[in-house]
C-alpha cells in the first residue's frame, strides 16, 4: 500500500494497492499469504501466492524435499517474552530450520524491492525517500517489535525511515477517515468523548483496543491492548482436528509428509469455504479433499473411509466420497466455536472494566472479520451494541497503516500493558530487605535484585512524554557503562525482580565514558512509553550531558 503526501493532503483514503495473483486459482487479491520459498542453497525464490504455487509444483514432481518453504511464520513472535535474536523457525514440513531473522528480513526485502521496482517504472524513487510502516499486533511485546525493526533494517530500510504501527490502531485511523457503513452510523459521526472498541480479527491473532475521541480529534487508548491467538487459523486447526479424529494423527502426518502439494490445496479450498459460510445449519458444506488422503488411510488401515466414519460421532453429519467431503452446516459451525467463544468471552470481560463502560460501538476489522459467521456471532452476543463492519474490513489495517505513516501522532495516549522496571541495587536495610539479597561491594552493603518501577500497569502513557524518571549511580569508580536488566510484571507493586510473575525481557545499556567523577556520577534515566515502541534517554545530572542509552531486548542476559 502506498500514498503520496500530495494525495494525502487532498484525500487521506486515496491509497494505491498492489494486486497479487494466485495463478493456480485464477485469483487476484490485494493481500497475499505470509509464505516464502528458498531454494536448496537457502537463497530467496518467491513470496506469497507465488511461493505457494511454486512449492506445490515442486511437491507434485516430488522435488520439494531440499527446498525451504515457510508459511504463517509471523505467528512465532506472538507471546514470546523470551524472544532472542538467534531464534530459529521451522519449515512447513518441520524437517529443517533457519534463523527467523533471515526469513523475516527476506520477506520484508522482497516487499520493499517489489514496491521500488513498480514505482521506478514511472519515476526514480529511492528507499530513503519513503516513510516505511510495518504493522504488528498491539498485543505483541517489546522484544517482538524490536525483532521486526531489526529485520527491516537487515532488509535495507534505515532506522529513521521506519515506523511500527499497531494493527488495531491503524484500522481505527482508517475508519476515522472513511464512512464505515451505509446509513446513519459511521465513524465520522463519532463526537469528542465517544468511546468505541476496535475488534481486529486477523488470520493469527485477535487484537482488541478501546479508544476515545478527543476534542483535538486525536484518539486515546482507554484500556491496555489485549487479545489472543484466536484468529482464522484457529478455525483451520479445528478442521484439521476433525480430519484427525476420523483418520488418526499418524495417518494425517504421513499424508502431509508424502503429499505436501495436496495438503496446501486442501487448506486453500477450506479457506474459501470458511469465508463463504454464513452459519446456515440446514445447508451442507462441500469441500474438495485430495484423493490421496483417502488412499493413504485405506492403504495403511485396510479399511474404508466409510467404515472409519461409522466409528465416530460424525457419521450422521458428514459424508466422504472420493474427493468430496460433505459436512452438515451444524457441524461446520462448530469449527468456529473455540475462536468465537474466546473472542466473545474476552469482549464481555472488557466491557465490564470501569474505563470501558459506556462503550456502545464495536468496529470489526481484519480479514477474519469478513467471515459472516464471526459477524453473526458478535452481533448475537452483543445485541445492544452498534456493531460496525467497514466495507473494506480486511484492508483496514493496511490502509490505516499508510495513514499512520502520515500522522504518527494521531494516537495521543496509550495504556501500559505491564508494570515495567529495572533490576537495581540499593542500600541494604535490615528488617526491610531479605537477607539472601544482601551483597557487599567494597565497603558498601547493598540489596540486590530490587525492582525499580518506572511505569505501573494501566498507567496512562502520553505520546513522546517521559512517563518515568529515576536516578542511578555506578557501583564502581572506573565503571564506563551501566547495564540494567529490564523486567515486566502484572503485579502493581513488585519488590524484587525475582518475585513470582516477573519476567526478564532484555537489558538497557547506558554509556558513561568519563570516569573522573568516580562514584559521584548520577545518571538520570527516562523511559518514554507513549509511542508504539519503547524509547530511553539518559543524562549525566552534574553536566546535563545526554549520553548513549540503548534498549536491547534480543540479546541474551
Write the layout of secondary structure elements.
Layout: H1 5-10, E1 20-22, E2 27-29, E3 35-38, E4 44-47, H2 49-60, E5 68-71, E6 88-90, E7 97-99, H3 100-119, E8 132-136, H4 142-154, E9 162-166, H5 167-177, E10 195-201, E11 206-213, E12 219-228, H6 232-247, H7 249-258, H8 260-276, E13 285-288, H9 291-301, H10 305-310, E14 318-321, E15 324-327, H11 329-334, H12 337-351, E16 361-365, H13 372-381, E17 386-388, H14 396-406, E18 411-415, E19 419-427, E20 438-441, E21 444-455, E22 460-462, E23 466-472, E24 481-489, E25 503-511, E26 523-528, E27 535-540, E28 545-547, E29 549-552
Parallel strand pairs: 8-9, 10-16, 12-18, 16-17
Antiparallel strand pairs: 1-2, 3-4, 3-5, 6-7, 10-11, 11-12, 13-15, 14-15, 18-22, 19-21, 19-24, 20-21, 23-26, 24-25, 25-29, 26-27, 27-28
Helix pairs in contact: 2-8, 3-4, 5-14, 6-7, 7-9
Organism: Mytilus edulis
Keywords: ATP-binding, Nucleotide-binding
Protein name: Heat shock 70 kDa protein 12A
Amino acid at each position: 500500500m502506498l500514498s503520496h503526501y500530495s494525495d494525502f493532503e487532498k484525500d487521506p483514503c486515496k491509497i494505491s494497492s498492489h494486486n497479487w495473483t494466485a495463478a493456480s486459482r485464477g485469483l487476484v487479491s490485494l493481500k497475499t499469504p505470509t509464505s516464502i520459498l528458498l531454494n536448496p542453497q537457502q537463497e530467496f525464490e518467491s513470496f506469497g501466492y507465488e511461493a505457494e504455487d511454486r512449492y506445490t509444483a515442486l511437491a507434485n514432481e516430488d522435488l520439494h524435499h531440499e527446498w525451504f518453504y515457510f508459511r504463517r511464520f509471523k505467528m512465532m513472535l506472538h507471546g514470546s517474552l523470551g524472544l532472542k535474536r538467534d531464534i530459529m523457525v521451522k519449515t512447513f514440513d518441520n524437517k529443517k530450520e533457519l534463523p527467523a531473522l533471515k526469513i523475516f528480513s527476506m520477506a520484508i526485502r522482497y516487499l520493499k524491492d517489489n514496491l521500488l521496482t513498480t514505482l521506478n517504472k514511472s519515476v526514480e524513487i529511492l528507499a530513503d525517500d519513503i516513510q516505511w510502516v510495518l504493522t504488528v499486533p498491539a498485543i505483541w511485546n517489546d522484544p517482538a517489535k524490536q525483532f521486526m525493526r531489526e529485520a527491516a533494517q537487515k532488509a535495507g530500510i534505515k532506522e529513521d525511515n521506519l515506523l511500527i504501527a499497531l494493527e488495531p490502531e491503524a484500522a481505527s485511523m482508517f475508519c476515522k477517515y472513511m464512512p464505515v457503513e451505509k446509513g446513519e452510523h459511521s465513524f465520522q459521526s463519532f463526537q469528542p468523548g465517544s468511546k468505541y472498541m476496535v475488534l481486529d480479527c486477523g488470520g493469527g491473532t485477535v487484537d482488541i483496543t478501546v479508544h476515545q475521541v478527543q476534542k483535538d480529534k486525536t484518539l486515546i487508548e482507554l484500556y491496555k491492548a489485549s487479545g489472543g491467538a484466536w484468529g482464522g487459523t484457529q478455525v483451520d486447526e479445528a478442521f484439521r482436528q476433525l480430519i484427525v479424529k476420523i483418520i488418526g494423527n499418524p495417518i494425517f502426518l504421513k499424508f502431509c509428509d508424502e503429499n505436501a502439494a495436496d495438503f496446501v490445496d486442501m487448506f486453500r479450498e477450506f479457506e474459501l469455504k470458511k469465508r463463504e459460510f454464513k452459519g446456515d445449519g440446514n445447508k451442507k458444506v462441500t469441500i474438495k479433499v485430495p484423493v490421496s488422503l483417502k488412499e493413504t488411510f485405506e492403504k495403511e488401515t485396510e479399511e474404508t473411509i466409510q467404515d472409519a466414519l461409522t466409528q465416530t460421532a460424525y457419521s450422521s453429519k458428514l459424508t466422504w466420497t472420493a474427493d468430496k467431503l460433505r459436512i452438515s452446516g451444524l457441524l461446520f459451525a462448530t469449527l468456529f466455536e473455540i475462536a468465537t467463544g474466546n473472542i466473545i468471552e474476552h469482549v464481555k470481560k472488557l466491557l465490564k472494566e470501569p474505563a470501558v463502560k459506556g462503550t456502545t460501538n464495536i468496529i470489526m476489522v481484519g480479514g477474519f472479520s469478513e467471515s459472516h459467521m464471526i459477524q453473526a456471532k458478535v452481533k448475537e452476543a452483543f445485541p445492544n451494541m452498534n456493531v460496525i463492519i467497514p466495507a473494506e474490513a480486511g484492508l483496514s489495517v493496511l490502509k490505516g497503516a499508510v495513514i499512520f505513516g502520515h500522522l504518527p501522532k494521531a494516537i495521543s495516549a496509550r495504556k501500559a500493558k505491564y508494570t515495567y522496571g529495572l533490576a537495581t541495587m540499593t542500600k541494604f536495610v535490615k528488617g526491610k530487605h531479605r537477607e539472601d539479597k544482601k551483597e557487599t561491594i567494597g565497603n558498601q552493603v547493598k540489596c540486590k535484585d530490587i525492582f525499580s518501577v518506572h511505569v505501573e500497569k494501566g498507567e496512562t502513557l502520553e505520546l513522546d512524554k517521559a512517563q518515568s524518571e529515576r536516578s542511578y549511580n555506578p557501583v564502581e569508580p572506573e565503571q564506563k557503562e551501566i547495564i540494567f536488566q529490564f523486567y515486566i510484571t502484572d503485579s502493581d507493586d513488585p519488590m524484587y525482580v525475582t518475585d513470582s510473575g516477573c519476567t526478564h525481557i532484555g537489558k538497557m545499556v547506558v554509556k558513561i565514558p568519563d570516569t573522573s567523577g568516580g562514584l559521584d556520577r548520577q545518571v538520570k534515566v527516562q523511559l518514554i512509553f507513549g509511542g508504539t515502541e519503547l524509547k530511553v534517554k539518559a543524562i549525566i545530572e552534574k553536566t546535563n550531558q545526554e549520553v548513549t542509552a540503548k534498549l536491547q531486548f534480543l540479546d541474551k542476559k
